[in-house]
Structure formats: structure tokens, C-alpha cells
Amino acid sequence: MCPPSDVGLRRPNLDVKLSLATGALSTPAHLIGHTELPVDRPAVECGELKCVASVCLKGRHVRELRMLRRELQPLLPPAAAVKPPAAGEPTGQVVALEDWCTCRPEQVAQLTLRRNVLTSLPAGFGGALRQLLRLDLSSNRFGELPAEVCELRHLQVLNVSCNRLKALPDAVGKLGELRHLRLGENELAELPEAIGACAQLETLVLGSVFGGNRLRQLPRSIGLLRRLRELDCSNNLLEALPEELGDLCGSLQTLTLSGNRLAALSPRIGSLVLLRYLDVSRNALVALPAQLAGMPGLRYLNVSNNALTHLPGEIVAMGSRTSLYLCSNPLVAGAMAAAAATVTEALTAGAVERLGGGGQRERLEGDE
Predict the structure, then answer these.
(1) How far is CA 325 from the centre of its chain?
(2) Once rounded to an integer, what is the mean pLDDT over residues 242-247?
(3) Tally of CB atoms within 10 A around 312
(4) 320 Cβ contact partners less than 8 Å away, ≥ 6 residues apart
(5) Where is average pLDDT lowest: 16-30, 63-77, 266-280?
(6) Which pTM was predicted?
(7) Maximum distance among all alpha carbons in the chain?
(8) Fewer CB within 10 Å, N or C, the chain?
């Protein structure tokens, strides 16, 4: 399972795939003359098969990962195969990573361990997998980010969503080549200032429609992530945004802040001139800064389900070029009359897709 081409990862010339989710090993036909071989024992020996690009242990009820088979004694027989437990059997298996590799660990570029019951990683994990580019630890039971992960200096994609993380260590700043970090559906109360040292970061996901974290603020060092293109902080407890967020004016394109406690947006948000997508729905906004209208690239603006009573004419006029969502706000009909002349052209063109969710449009037309 090679990384998607659009992610732009550096990766070695590894073209063999090992998928334990499907129970089959596939490799180019010119290597062995077959496209699939059954995996009927933990270790597969196969002539010219010399390296593994991807190792997947998804959904196998693994509760503990060991680097070497000998470390399993006396926990399991050396050749014990890993199989999903039958109905009625206890879950939680102990796995030796070497049993699933036909190569040296340093040749593994992608490792998928999602949907298991892991709470820790073995000592030596980071040193052994020193060329790892992608690591998926999502949907496990980690209470903290294992220190071994921070030793993976070439790591570019890290997914630790849907765990029980309560904090990130400062050592996360050592991941200098990290480009994509997913931390949604955890219990994080804060992010360390050290996150600003991840200067290559392009995607930072701290929330999702399925759940966020418990963040009340973002670190000021967020402004140091000058390559960040996507920031998702949905479903947290944010009450304000750091002014340094405006320093991302040269990169940020997608900003999702829905489901927080924001009462206001700083006028400096208008400096994000590359922003194309802004979602601040389901907050406590009572007003919008007019600077939003000065963002030339903005194509989607969702401010629904807030506490807006008045709407600047400049914002309404954005409907001629922006998908504007205003529904479920207590907009005052009289205040809308002041913006009626500005919005007429946008309404005629049908560019405002939703204006008040059914009730606000009638009041606006009545005002006219």
C-alpha cells in the first residue's frame, strides 16, 4: 500500500506490498511470476522477495507489539500465527514484528497498526524502523504518544486519531520531516509550543465530525508552521484564536473551526489571503469582521448556527463569489434592510445558496 502520489512523500524504491488485512502478499510479476501468494505462516520466505514497503496489522486485536520473536517466550510459541479470535475467545494477541517482515525492519516504509488494542510500543521501535515514512496508530488505546514515535526522524505521515491521548510530549518537535499529523478523537487539553518546530507540517487535524479534543486554545507557535495548508480544529473547546494564526497568510487554504466556543474572530483573519474554505459554524459568534470580505480566494464561508444579529453589507456581497451559509442565526430583519441594496445582485444570480435557512430570505425580500 504505497502512499498516495499527491501527498508528495519521499520514499525509497520499494515496490513489494504485504497486506495482513487481506491475508495476501502481492509483488510485481517480474519478481516472482505471481501476483498473490497465501500468507499461511507468520514469516514468508520467497526467493527474490527482498524488501517490504508496507506492513499492515489492521484490526487483528493486537495488544502488544514486540520487535523480535524471541521476546515472545514464554508468551507464545515462536511460530504462532496471528489470527482474529473466534467467537467467545479472549481478544488481545502478542505479535513479533519480524514475523511479518521478510526484510530488515529499516526497509519498512509504511506501518499500519490501526484498530487494535495497543497501549505502548516496544523499546527499540524507533531505532529499528528508522526509514519509516508513514505510521498509522489510529483506533488503539494509547494514553500518551509513545516516545519511540518521536525517534522516527524521517516520518512524514502520522495518524494517532481515535485514541486516549491527554497530552503530546515536547519531543514531537523532533519530527522535523512530518507533513501530515492527525490527532482527532482524543482527549488533548493543550498542544505543546514545540509543535511549531514541525516546520514541514502541511496538514494538522485536531478534530473531525466524529469528535475532536478538549483544546481551549492553540499555542502561539502555530504561526511558525509556514507550510500549513489545512488546519482542522472542529469539535473542541476553543474560546479564542491566537493572533499568530494570521502569520500563515502564505500557505493556509482550509480552516475548520466548527463546534467550538468562539465569540469573535480577530480582524487579522483577513490576512489569510490564500484561504479558500472557512467553517466557523456552531460557535457563539455575535459579529463578523468586515475583513472577511477582503479575502479574494474565499469560496466557502459557513457561519451558520451562531448568534449573529447583524450582517455587514460587505459580507452579504461576498455571495457573488462565495458559497455563503448563514442559517440558524437570530438575524434582525430591520438590520438586513440596510444590506438589501448590496445583496440584490447576488440574489438575482443565485449565488447565495442559503440565506437564513428558510426564514431569513422571506424577511429580506419583505424588507425590500
Answers:
(1) 24
(2) 96
(3) 18
(4) 345, 346, 349, 351
(5) 16-30
(6) 0.75
(7) 82
(8) C
What is the amino acid identity at position 205?
Answer: V
Phi-psi region of 359 (alpha: psi -120 to 50; beta: other; left: phi over 0): alpha
pLDDT digits (tens, 9 = 90+) for 199-215: 999 999 999 989 999 99
Q: Is 328 helix (H, G, I), strand (E, B) or coil?
A: coil
Give residue-wise pLDDT tens across range 53-80: 577 777 666 776 766 655 544 433 333 3
The Cα-based distances of 299 to 5, 65, 204, 293, 337 in angstroms read: 26, 46, 21, 11, 25
User: Is the CA virtual torsion 120, 124, 127, 132 positive or negative?
Assistant: negative
Residue 330 contacts residue 356 (beta carbons within 8 Å) = no
Q: Which residue type sits at 90? A: P
- Beta carbons within 10 angstroms of residue 198's beta carbon: 24
Tell me whether strands 110-112 and 93-96 are parallel, antiparallel or unpaired: unpaired
Q: Are the CB atoms for 60 and 20 separated by under 8 Å?
A: yes
Location of C-alpha cell 498542544: 191
108 pLDDT tier (thresholds 50, 70, 90): confident
Residue type, 7: V
Tell me the pairing of strands 62-66 and 54-56.
unpaired
Task: Measure Cα distances from 268 to 228, 296, 312, 318 in Å.
Answer: 17, 15, 17, 18
Which residues on adjacent β-strands are paired with residue 38?
24
Task: List the Cα angle 336/300/287 in 5-degree steps.
Answer: 40
DSSP letter string over 281-315?
-SS--S---GGGGG-TT--EEE--SS------HHH
